[in-house]
């Protein structure tokens, strides 16, 4: 129950952001397009672009990843499924992409589609006043759901822990790469690649199913 009400608050937080700033990076709490897309570049290292595939974009916001894919990989057929906690985001995404034939958007409560890959950019960052144990449980559930819905692999990103823990912002969640990489290897039976050093105080985990 604590988790449900925390997730409802997070959904409300992001609905307010998109109401205020519209379908723009600020509307999903990012500072600008270049860093938003820098995250997509890291997450998409998971995917084999030599063939067509299907993709869950978990926490899709207004569908900026779809825009990026259409520009960068115009020739590829990518079946795109965006899900988000925030009804405001799903409304903004559905408006923006209403004439795009191969994109579908739905609320996270409806679950993920079984797809080749699942990626999530920025879903673990804002925890508001959530206790760390509740947030850890939400992360574990999200990773499990992404694993179960992905035939080939999944990828997520996290904010890196600051050198001085006291300089962290209480409403944000910071992580150590080895912690969640170890969890995905041991509990979810995946091969994990840690990507870091791409100019943001963050890291990305690429999880591939063995064999
Ligand atoms: C920082 S924004 C990034 C949006 C988009 N991924 C992008 O990079 O443009 C994070 C998004 O994830 C959504 N979100 C947060 N936690 C989520 C969860 N557990 N499941 C699904 N969506 C979530 C939020 O509503 C928000 O739209």
Report on the structure:
The structure is a single chain. The chain is 37% helix and 23% strand. The model has no long low-confidence stretch (mean pLDDT 96). The protein has a single domain (3-208), classed as Rossmann fold (3-Layer(aba) Sandwich). It has six helices and eight strands, in the order H-H-E-H-E-H-E-E-H-E-E-H-E-E. By secondary structure, it is an alpha/beta fold. The longest helix has 20 residues, at 2-21. The site of S-adenosylmethionine has 23 residues, from helix 1 and strand 2.
Describe the structure concisely.
The chain is α/β, with parallel strands linked by helices.
Which spans have pLDDT < 50 for at least 5 consecutive residues? none
Class by SSE composition:
alpha/beta
Q: Judging from the principal axes of the Cα atoms, what is the shape?
A: globular
* CATH first level: Alpha Beta
Instruction: Write out the distinct hetero groups bound to the structure.
Output: S-adenosylmethionine
| Quantity of strands, as a count | 8
* CATH topological fold name: Rossmann fold
Discrete helix count: 6
Overall mean pLDDT stands at 96
The helix/strand order is HHEHEHEEHEEHEE
Radius of gyration: 16 Å
Range of helix content? 25-40%
End-to-end span in angstroms?
37 Å
Tell me what portion of residues adopts beta-strand conformation.
Answer: 15-25%
């Amino acid at each position: 129950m604590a988790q449900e009400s925390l997730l409802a608050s997070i959904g409300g937080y992001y609905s307010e952001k998109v109401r205020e700033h519209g379908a723009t990076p600020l509307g999903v709490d990012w500072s600008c397009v270049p860093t938003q897309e820098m995250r997509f570049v890291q997450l998409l290292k998971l995917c084999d672009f030599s063939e067509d595939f299907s993709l869950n974009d978990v926490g899709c916001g207004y569908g900026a990843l779809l825009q990026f894919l259409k520009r960068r990989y115009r020739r590829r057929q990518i079946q795109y499924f965006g899900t988000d906690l925030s009804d405001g985001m799903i409304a903004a995404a559905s408006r923006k992409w209403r004439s795009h034939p191969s994109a579908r958007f739905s609320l996270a409560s409806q679950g993920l589609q079984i797809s080749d890959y699942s990626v999530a950019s920025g879903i673990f960052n804002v925890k508001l006043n959530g206790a760390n144990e509740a947030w850890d449980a939400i992360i574990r559930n999200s990773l499990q759901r992404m694993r179960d819905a992905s035939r080939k692999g999944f990828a997520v990103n996290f904010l890196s822990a600051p050198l001085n823990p006291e300089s962290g912002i209480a409403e944000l969640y910071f992580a150590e790469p080895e912690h969640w990489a170890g969890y995905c290897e041991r509990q979810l039976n995946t091969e994990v690649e840690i990507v870091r050093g791409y100019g943001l105080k963050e890291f990305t985990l690429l999880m591939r199913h063995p064999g």
